[in-house]
Amino acid sequence: MSRKKVLVLGGTRGIGQQVVAQALQAGHEVTAFSRTADKIPVQDDRLHLVVGTVTDGSRLSEAIRGHDAVISALGQGMSLKADSLIQRSVPVIVSAMQAQRVRRLIFTSSLGVGDSVRDAPLFSRMMMRFLLKDIYADKIAGEALIRRSDLDWTLVQPPQLTNGPLTRKYRVGEHLELRGIPRISRADVAHFILSQLDDTTYVRKAALIAH
After folding, report:
1. Which of 10, 13, 119, 196 has the most CB within a 10 Å radius?
2. Residue among 50, 29, 20 nearest 38 (CA)
3. Is residue 175 within 8 Å of residue 119, measured between CB atoms?
4. How far is CA 203 from the centre of its chain?
5. CA angle (202 as vertex; 35, 106 as ends), nearest 5
6. Other beta carbons less than 10 A from residue 204's beta carbon
7. Which of 139, 120, 129 is nearest to 182 (CA)?
8. Are 99 and 37 in contact (CB under 8 A)?
9. Which three-class secondary structure state does DSSP give residue 51?
10. The total number of structural domains that make up the chain
11. CA–CA separation, 148 vs 195, rounded Å?
12. SS3 track for 153-169
C-alpha cells in the first residue's frame, strides 16, 4: 500500500477512530477533522488535528487541500435521530473536494441503504423500517447525493458493528448472502476502507462487508 495523505471525517470514535489508528500504523499522513478533533488521545508526527464542523465549507475546503483522499465515518452514534446530518454534510463535502480537486471519497454508510436492502435479512429490514427509520432516510438521501457527484466515490455498507478485534477475515461484494443478524467489527471495516485507497474495484460502487 502506497503512503497517502488522508483526511478523516468523524475520526474521534467508532470506525473513524479505527481508521485514524490503522492509517497511522500503515504509514499514512492523517488529518482528523471534527468538532472534537483536539480530544483525540493519539499523538503522532503524521497526525494533524483540525477542529471544525463539516457544514463549514470554507474551513473544510482548506483542510482538504493537498490530500489524496477523504474518508467519512460520519454518524450519529447510538442516537435514533438523524438531524439530517448526512444530507447536510454531503453537499459540503462534495463541493469542498471539487474545489480542491481531490477526487477519492470513501464514505461509510450501512447495510440496507439503497439496493443493499435486498441483501438485508428480515430482522435487519424490520429494524431499518421502524426503529431506525429516521437514520436510514438520512443515509439514503446522502448516498443519492454522492452517487450523483463526479467524484471517485466508494460507499462502504457494513451491518451491525461490534468492538471486536481486527481479523482481516471478512467478505466483501456488491451483494452478499446474509442471514440472521450479520455483524462485523469496526476494526475490520476500517481495514477494508484503508485498502480502498489503492484499490479501484469499488470506485463508483457500493461495497457490502460482513464477517
Report:
1. 10
2. 50
3. yes
4. 14
5. 5
6. 14
7. 120
8. no
9. strand
10. 1
11. 24
12. EEEEECCEEECCCCCCC
Burial class (CB in 10 A: 0-12, 13-18, 19+), 200: exposed
Backbone angles phi and psi of 51, in degrees to 5: -90, 125
pLDDT tens-place values along the chain, 211 residues long: 789 999 999 999 999 999 999 999 999 999 999 999 888 888 899 999 999 999 999 999 999 999 999 999 999 877 778 899 999 999 999 999 999 999 999 999 999 999 999 999 998 999 888 888 999 999 999 999 999 999 999 999 999 999 999 999 999 999 999 999 999 999 999 999 999 999 999 999 999 999 9
Residue reference for cell 457490502: 208
User: Which regions of 41-173 does DSSP assign to beta strands (E)?
Assistant: 47-51, 69-72, 104-108, 152-157, 160-162, 171-173
Owner of C-alpha cell 471544525: 52
Which cell is 194 given? 484503508
- Could you give phi then psi for residue 63, rounded to 5 degrees? -70, -35
pTM over 0.85: yes
The C-alpha cell 481495514 sits at: 191
What's the domain range around 158? Answer: 5-210
User: Is the CB of residue 107 less than 8 Å from the CB of residue 146?
Assistant: yes
Integer Cα distance of 88 and 142 in angstroms: 8
Amino acid present at 24: L
Q: What is the number of alpha carbons within 13 Å of residue 126 lying toward its C-beta?
A: 5
| Residue 36 belongs to domain with CATH number | 3.40.50.720
